[in-house]
């Protein structure tokens, strides 16, 4: 899954793709590099990010989805927490809803159920403004697994049938929590749903290695290859070509291609 941030302030690529033409060009580049899904977002979720008004988020993402739809049939995911944005994105041709709030808003679940859209349910403690203020867990892996299982059950009750789970690396977690979630990823992948891993360029890699945000590809590859070996079905990445090559080799060795 190639991450495309049509935002001025995302943590690693903010401002690069906030113009429609640049965003579409980037999406086509990621497709040429081997992405299977493009995840388009119009609101940064980096720690401390301020919420974006609905109108502005719609302005950022809908024209990009419409333009991309004219050029490619690749599955498009809309990375949003707002039901109106999800609805408009699906109408514009998106296929999947990626909600970093884990569909806590019943209106989001309603849109997914009515439109029969597949969903990514991500775990987050609090919201991006508050999530890194002293996150605490007794035992992060079982707590995140239990939360995801409960959210999935609630969504299924509302009629959502195609669910992907995501532990939400970096969302209300310390570096140690993120490392524990990666170490225990097979438990997330055993919940009974395809599992997504979003570790790309995140700060725990910087804390482990000292690497600046633009120099975290080697650490990102290590985290994502580990995740795939532990059962991740989808990795959400900024560097598609490098991941395609690494995954092709990994899957060839594993015999899973
Ligand atoms: N991470 C980010 C955004 N959306 N969605 C899922 N399902 N999982 C993730 O781990 C995830 C996500 C954060 O990365 P990015 O989009 O590059 O930055 P920003 O939120 O600053 O736009």
Label this structure with key terms.
257 residues, alpha/beta, TIM Barrel, six-stranded parallel β-sheet, two-stranded parallel sheet, 10 helices, 45% helix, 11% strand, globular, binds 6-hydroxymethylpterin-diphosphate
Topology record:
Elements: E1 2-5, H1 20-32, E2 38-41, H2 54-71, E3 76-79, H3 83-91, E4 96-99, H4 106-114, E5 119-122, H5 140-157, E6 163-166, H6 175-183, H7 185-189, E7 196-197, H8 203-209, H9 217-229, E8 234-235, H10 240-254
Parallel strand pairs: 1-2, 2-3, 3-4, 4-5, 5-6, 7-8
Helix pairs in contact: 1-2, 2-3, 3-4, 6-8, 9-10
The structure holds 6-hydroxymethylpterin-diphosphate (HH2).
6-hydroxymethylpterin-diphosphate (HH2) binds next to strand 1 and strand 5.
Describe the structure.
The protein is α/β, with parallel strands linked by helices and 257 residues long. It has one domain: Alpha-Beta Barrel (TIM Barrel), CATH 3.20.20.20. It is 45% helix and 11% strand. The protein has ten helices and eight strands. It has helices spanning 20-32, 54-71, 83-91, 106-114, 140-157, 175-183, 185-189, 203-209, 217-229, 240-254; strands at residues 2-5, 38-41, 76-79, 96-99, 119-122, 163-166, 196-197, 234-235. Strands 1-2-3-4-5-6 form a six-stranded parallel sheet, covered by helices on one side. A two-stranded parallel ribbon has the order 7-8. Strand 1, helix 1 (20-32) and strand 2 (38-41) form a beta-alpha-beta unit. The longest helix has 18 residues, at 54-71. The structure holds 6-hydroxymethylpterin-diphosphate. Residues 3, 5, 7, 10-12, 41, 44-46, 79, 98, 100, 120, 122, 166, 168-169, 196, 198, 236 line the site of 6-hydroxymethylpterin-diphosphate. 6-hydroxymethylpterin-diphosphate is lined by residues 3, 5, 7, 10-12, 41, 44-46, 79, 98, 100, 120, 122, 166, 168-169, 196, 198, 236.
